[in-house]
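Record type: monomer structure entry
Structure origin: computed from sequence
Chain ID: A
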Amino acid sequence: MTTTLITGFFSYLGTTSDYFVILVLLFATFRQKSQVRPIILGAYLGNALLVGAALLIGGALKQIPAEWLLGLLGLVPVAIGLKNYFSNEGEEEGEAFVTKVQETPNQRIVLTVVLMTIAGCGADNLALYIPYFSLANWAALPIIFLMFTAILTICIFLAYRLAKVQKVQDLFERYGDLMQVLVYVALGIYILFDAGTVTHLLSLL
């Protein structure tokens, strides 16, 4: 269970870098106090939908008898991490999303943030969560969900506090991609070894 919790911690932490930038841009755009709560609620709902979808898919994949086949999913976060690192798609999407939100009435901010979360982070998050939940010890799910909620809460709080600090935002945007690719690749390699995929493939040589 300890391994499951540690892996879950770094899995969720690894998906917050791009999302943190989006949250900072959102809080910097909506400066009225009445607009803060809709952003926070939208962030929680969007992340809950992503985790829930990954949990269902990961649970279905548990029915696959050969565990080493599941390990091949570790190639997905490696590929996405490298792709994001060598492209600027994430930053461009974030800016486009914020522009769209800025033109949205206050009562629709929650829905817009949920859509931003899914569209901007969905592929990356699912690439990590699905293989993680397919191999994780489900007895630890309550603790995992509490841990995810705590990390997201800290992320939201820091984004809110740092939204107006330009130097900090520039620093994070500059090195955020490098941090993300390192976590993604490391977790992908861990999944390949933990599921016995590497060992199985080497035994075929």
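Annotation 1: The chain has a mean pLDDT of 76.
Annotation 2: Residues 38 and 109 are 6 Å apart (CA to CA).
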